[in-house]
Amino acid sequence: MKDKNVKKTIVFTMLSMALAAAPAMAGHKRLKSADGTKVSIDCSSQKCTAKEKAPGKKWAVVKTTPPGTEEYESLISEYEAKGYK
Q1: Strands 60-65 and 27-32
Q2: Which residue from 2, 19, 48, 51 lies 20 to 30 Å from 35 (Cα-Cα)?
Q3: Is the backbone of residue 83 left (phi > 0), alpha (psi -120 to 50) or beta?
Q4: End-to-end alpha-carbon separation of the chain, Å?
């Protein structure tokens, strides 16, 4: 019985450490400027990307950053400062 609890504790500890080391998944947000240009900010556990689409054009990646909540929030702040809502 004691060995079983020790194994569970070890597995739980290893799982907790693995999850703590992983970067946070931030999310997805779309913004639009006054001239109709759209920006899509998408962050996953692998990277954050910002894509822009001007009216009548195709989506194009304009910026790629490492993953994480800080990068996601900084991309949103950057585009809001440019007038995107």
Answers
A1: unpaired
A2: 48
A3: left
A4: 59
pLDDT values of the chain reduced to their tens digit, one per residue, 85 residues: 566 676 777 766 665 655 444 555 568 999 999 999 999 999 988 899 999 999 999 999 999 999 888 899 999 999 999 999 9
Grouping H, G, I as helix, E, B as strand and the rest as coil, residue 49 is: strand
Residue type, 47: K
Over the Cα atoms of the chain, what is R_g?
Answer: 20
For residue 85, the 8-state DSSP code is -
pTM for the complete prediction?
0.66
Identify how many contiguous H helices and E strands the chain contains and give both numbers: 2, 4
